[in-house]
Amino acid sequence: MSVVRYLLGRVANLTAVVLLVTVATWLSFHVLKPEKFRGDERPMLVQLGDYVQRAVLHLDLGRSWSGSTRPVAEIIAARLPADLWLLAGAMVFGLGVGVAGGAVAAAREGTWVARLLEGAAALFLCTPVYVVGLTALLLFGRGIAMVDIGVAIPTEYTPLAEQPGAWLASLVVPWIVLGLPLAAVCLRMMRGEMLGALEHDSLRTAAAKGLRRRRVIGRHATRLAVAPTLTLAGVSIPLVITNLVLVEKVFAVPGMFQNMTQAMGSADFPLLMGMTITVAALVAVGTFVVDVALALVDPTIRTPAAG
User: Fold this and answer.
1) 142-180 burial, b for 16+ CB within 10 Å, e for fewer?
2) ∠13-18-24 over CA atoms, to 5°?
3) Which CATH number does 2-34+79-306 carry?
4) In the predicted model, what is the mean pLDDT of the chain?
5) Is the pTM of this model over 0.70?
6) Which of 292, 294, 293, 300 is nearest to 7 (CA)?
7) Any idea where the domains of the chain sit in the sequence?
């Protein structure tokens, strides 16, 4: 029950954060651009309450102020699936590669393998994702490749419903490019935590009693290091979503951020509000998924929840 209470508390907290972001963004637009909203003579707080109620209870985000005047919820719903697939694949890749790479780097500390992994982590942590993406396309992109390796990176996105195989091929490299900074962060955290765990008295005693080093690392040190790595991955989700905007552009993935520049240029408030709320919700959902994984991996979270 303590884990359930913990997760319910996290849902409540994250929901409150999404609502706070919605309110703060709405007020910012109305304070900075009051001339855009002169048609509504109601008090500002009444307008805010009406917007939040419609957005939360009916998913009514208004209509775009662009020429199409389409409902904002319809525009976002049509483009959001591509972003969800891109974000999910990048998170899986980043966490998986980061945890595995960090464990290998710690287990082989001082070897050329560990140095290679640490160097790659430093490189991809410092290199912008659009540079990595554009470099990959210029070298191996279909129709523009400078290097022929027999396999080319698709330069157009294919919807899942049309051709599942082509859809997967069009997302593999974007998943890798978007997930590399997260993998680098997780690798460095995992390595540091594992090296610290190996110095723990209980693990040193286990090793002294003859327990094989591989078992000490695999069963004990890795478990101790995973929880802090998951926590770091959770707080890195906003950065991943920020990079998602750039990866969308580079690989022509038709996500909801494709309209962001146009919406900003035309001051399309309803569409910008819808994007902001959606991003806040994505961060909240991603954080909750990480919290669930953390609750399964680290039972010590039950202590504060029970208190």
Assistant:
1) eeebeeeeeebbbeebbeeeeeeeebebbbebbbbbbbb
2) 120
3) 1.10.3720.10
4) 85
5) yes
6) 292
7) 2-34+79-306
